[in-house]
Amino acid sequence: MKKQITLVLALVITAATFAQKAKVLEGDFKDLKGITEYNLVFDYSDLEIPKYDNEEDFLKDKMAKREEKKAGDGERFKKSWFSDREERYEPKFIESFNKRYDEFQVGKDLPNAEYTMKIHTTLLYAGYNVGVMRQPSKVDAIISVYKTGSPDNIIFSVKYKKAEGNGAMGYDFDSGYRISESYAKLAKTLAKTINKKAW
Which residues constitute the signal peptide according to the record (predicted)? Predict the structure, then answer.
């Protein structure tokens, strides 16, 4: 029994390790050494949604299905799909990043930050939870760092794939909540890697 528990724990840890993959596209994490503050910019352009040609097709499908069940639900879904970015995903990223280390912090509209960090979400999968079956949300993102005011002069860029998000104890029926947990996971992984390789 003890061996079985150990094996299960090992598999869970291995799955968590490989769920989120990183590939450095430009520069090196060491190039971030000494940077204590990043001004954050979030970019959702050219967003890929699995099983759909584009974000517009995704919204049409989801809105139509909700509208069939209850008038007005389609528009409500569309509104929350976009408002969740500023109200849930971005604050969750900032909170998760900043609570780990005091040496470096991120924030939006920081007037004195010499460097900007752009979080470009390239893929977003909302996942689902229907009680008996569930799938975590997934986020892919390219994170770039550049001197504030010089977005074309990137000093470092890394792509993260499959930042998975779900709620504790399985109570994550709301897609916005699941996705916000993906951003928390992304921020956590990024902050830990910066601390390990750049400080």
Answer: 1-21
Token code pair at residue 54: 């584009």
* Long-range contacts, stretch 47-50, CB < 8 angstroms, 24+ apart: 47/121, 47/122, 47/123, 47/124, 48/122, 48/123, 48/124, 48/140, 49/123, 49/124, 49/125, 50/123, 50/125
Q: How many angstroms separate the CA atoms of 107 and 113, rounded?
A: 9
Q: For residue range 70-122, what is the model confidence (pLDDT) as tens digits? A: 999 999 999 999 999 999 999 999 999 999 999 999 999 898 999 999 999 99
Within 10 angstroms of residue 179's Cβ, the number of other Cβ atoms is: 28
Residue entry with tokens 């799938």: 135
The DSSP annotation for 12-36 comes to HHHHHHHHSEEEEEES-GGGGTT--
Other Cβ atoms within 10 Å of 116 Cβ, number: 19
pTM metric for this prediction:
0.86
Q: How far is residue 163's CA from residue 140's CA, in Å, rounded to a whole number?
A: 7
